[in-house]
Write a structure and sequence with these properties.
InterPro entries: FtsK/SpoIIIE/SftA (IPR050206), FtsK_dom (IPR002543), P-loop_NTPase (IPR027417)
Structural class: alpha/beta
Radius of gyration: 18 Å
Protein name: DNA segregation ATPase, FtsK/SpoIIIE family
Number of strands: 10
Keywords: ATP-binding, Coiled coil, Nucleotide-binding
Distance between the termini: 24 Å
CATH superfamily: P-loop containing nucleotide triphosphate hydrolases
Number of domains: 1
CATH class: Alpha Beta
Number of helices: 7
Strand order of the largest sheet: 2-1-10-9-8-3-7-6-4-5
GO molecular function: ATP binding; DNA binding
Pfam families: FtsK_SpoIIIE (PF01580)
Largest sheet: 10 strands, mixed
Order of helices and strands: EEEHEEHEHHEHEHEEH
Strand content: 15-25%
Bound molecules: adenosine-5'-triphosphate
Length: 274
């Protein structure tokens, strides 16, 4: 068994969900539930402003918030998008690139420590029997950290650290969830995009920006988020590694729903600490 970092060794999830359970995102157009297992994977959400990214993101955060076996690290470049979840976050970073870099370095150190520990016990990945939390890192809006705030060196350092976490974090129990309203090659370079096992493209303005999210060539094969009508908010194309993009609609969470979920998650946390 891995050495404990956060959870008490005798703590088992007694209420709420597990981060090892599939996360409910919404519904596919054929009526099936869009449930995705995110542990050992990462997800990129992108689309033009107002297309439904925040609502999509909230579904993912809500699941993790209700999981006694998950920690939330929220990076909110706009401060208010994820702000409703703030009190449940283990780490909350607003529009501050130096704090973001410090937090990413800490997370990288924790990931490395977990790998050393896994290596010591001759294991390849953490699993639900380990007394360590899965850490969900949520970054919204990616472009603010990678291209807008701070110096070029800081932005490059941010992208380097994030890429390392996306590339190596999975087996160590680090899930990266990143969202951007700027699906352009400078914000989502192919080398970063390809590391995301799930990609969810809400409405994009051009065929090429849809391809930047989903992968080259999908638009010409008919999987094109630029064809989603502007009024179809919350509709997106979800691509799972090795699959074909599927049209889906996010489950809608109003602010009132989120307040209730935060309160419920807070009660679970209190119960857990008692
Ligand atoms: N799944 C959905 N069902 C119903 N309405 C939705 C859904 N998703 C989004 N909407 C509507 O679209 C609005 C904009 O959605 P959202 O805030 O998620 O967009 P966004 O892409 O995050 O925008 P921005 O990039 O400007 O932050 C919501 O306030 C809501 O009214």
């Amino acid at each position: 068994m891995l050495k404990r970092t956060r959870r008490k060794p005798d703590t088992v999830p007694v209420a709420g969900l597990s981060i090892y359970d599939p996360i409910h995102l919404g519904i596919f157009e054929d009526g099936h539930r869009a449930d995705i297992p995110l542990v050992y994977r990462n997800i990129l959400l992108a689309g033009e402003p107002g297309s439904g990214k925040s609502v999509g993101l909230n579904n993912v955060v809500a699941h993790a918030a209700l999981c006694p076996d998950a920690s939330l690290w929220l990076f909110d470049g706009k401060q208010v998008e994820l702000g409703l979840w703030r009190e449940l976050a283990d780490v909350f970073v607003g529009p501050d690139i130096s704090r973001a870099l410090t937090a990413l370095e800490q997370l990288q150190a924790e990931m490395n420590r977990r790998y050393e520990e896994l290596d010591r016990v001759r294991r390849r990945k953490i699993d639900r029997t380990d007394p360590v939390d899965v850490i969900m890192l949520v970054v919204d809006e990616l472009a603010l950290f990678s291209a807008t705030m701070g110096s070029k060196d800081e932005q490059d350092a941010f992208v380097r650290l994030l890429r390392d976490l996306v590339a190596r974090g999975r087996a160590a129990g680090v899930i990266v969830v990143a969202a951007t309203q700027r699906p352009s090659a400078d914000i989502i370079p192919t080398s970063l995009r390809d590391l995301f096992g799930y990609r969810l493209a809400f409405r994009c303005t051009t065929d090429s920006s849809s391809d930047i999210v989903l992968g080259r060539g999908w638009a010409s094969q008919g999987y094109n988020a630029a064809t989603i009508a502007p009024e179809d908010r919350g509709i997106g194309l979800l691509l799972a590694e090795g699959g074909v993009p599927r049209r889906m609609k996010s489950a809608y969470l109003s602010d009132a729903d989120i307040y209730s979920l935060v309160e419920y998650a807070r009660q679970l946390k209190i119960g857990r600490a008692a």
